[in-house]
Amino acid sequence: MDHLKLTQRKLFKVKYFELRDDSIDIEESILFNTKKFIINYEDITANSIETVVSSKIKYWVMIVLFIVCLFTLYNSITTPKSFEAFFFFAAIFLAVTASYFFTREKVVVFESAPDNIVLFPNKPNVKEVNSFCDSLIKNRKDYLVNYYHENYTESTKVIELAKLNQLKETGVITDKEFIKLKNEIINGRASDNNFSSN
Q1: For residue 164, which phi and psi values (nearest 5 degrees)?
Q2: Three-state DSSP state, 54
Q3: For the whole model, what pTM was predicted?
Q4: Which of 57, 81, 121, 174 has the largest count of CB atoms under 10 Å?
């Protein structure tokens, strides 16, 4: 069964995903700030990657506290003062550093434009997220099959179109030749010798 909608909640953040025939609708709400955008299937990569994300705020607080610790240590050594300030900031630095590393979280990412699609792998549960990812991949493939009027594979048309685009950007072919060859690739009539860079 296709899983076409997904809602993910984490503290003050709520993310809504909905699959359409040709795109995915995304809405992200953080407290009173809401961001909505649509990503077309042709702008999404075929496979997801798992990565780890950390809090950027904690990262920068950690950097600032490290600099403050160095400054207070230097100040304590060069002047006849106690090390209380250094120990105070060092303790806070260690707490923030520990929090930074212990709160890192795995996410599933589909690279896309304008923004990547980022999913938490276990919110609301692993089965629901996996089902949604499978539906996203299936909808993307079905859309691209219809869009290109024949079976879509990553290793054929997309690679040919990428090579063709590179030839256009490097000035090997003109804009007019690019449009002609692009239409031939999409309609399935192009061959490699039409735009070989050799």
Answers
A1: -65, -45
A2: coil
A3: 0.56
A4: 121
